[in-house]
Amino acid sequence: MCLFEVPENGRKIDFVTMYDVVRPNSMHEMVSELVKKLKCQNINANETLLLNQATKEYEILSSNECDEEEDVVFRLCEKLNITQTASFFSRYTQAVQCHREFVDNADIAMFGDSITEWGPWVEMLPNIKLKNRGIAGDTTKGMLRRVETIVSLSPNKVFLMGGINDLAMGCSVSEICGRFDEIIDVLTRNNIETFVQSTLFVGNRLSHLNPLVAELNAKLSVLCVRKNVTFLNVNEALCPQGRLPSDYSVDGLHPNLCAYKEWKMLIEPIMQCEIKIADCL
Questions:
Q1: Taken in order 273, 275, 279, 281, is the CA torsion positive or negative?
Q2: For residue 136, how many other CB atoms are within 10 A of its CB?
Q3: Which range, 63-72, 202-211, 254-263, 266-275, has the best average confidence (pLDDT)?
Q4: Record: fold of 104-273
Q5: Hey, where are the domains in the chain?
């Protein structure tokens, strides 16, 4: 049974409204179901799913009769990737610039990639002076480059998570651990109590990464003992079966609100200690 009815031919689909109405386990599940439905009804998926950019680029690139089909597809992917990459780096650069320019002291800093950035930490923890320094798409290499934006906040504690984007890009576990080592050095050298949170497991769609995630977390745990910092196993609360469950994720990678609430319950007691200490001073 299909999750929803597809609009009549020629109408565009509002994914935000559809997601809100359908409430699937993930956006990927919804889109996959939608594509099947479109094919059954012989509806132009490119028009309906707003893939016109790809279609137009393909037509332009394939207009040269001398080009091989594989070459056209390769150049299409390359061109669209350039567009996506440029857009991503524009946003990334802007975020880093803002973090460097607008500095205000915080008791707690959250540091990581999109999994951190998309967490409603400020809303969930309104009584804690907290700054969210997650940036979508970031890697441990990028986090190392911008770790000074954490130091400039003069936080007492930082909660750090990263590594999944590195693994997806083919970085080795040893490379990632090496960068964690350097990040921890910078933070502890500046007297910031550091909490390394386990890299989250992912769902079925990206399950090939989970053995690497497990290996990374095992080595991070050992690293934390050696560096005398705390390792927090967030996976025990969110991914006890070694994968991110569908009812805790929107897409098999990013946690949903239910997951963030569980995560909050794990770290809030540590943060609340900060408030009690401040009240006693």
A1: positive
A2: 17
A3: 254-263
A4: Rossmann fold (3.40.50)
A5: 3-92, 104-273
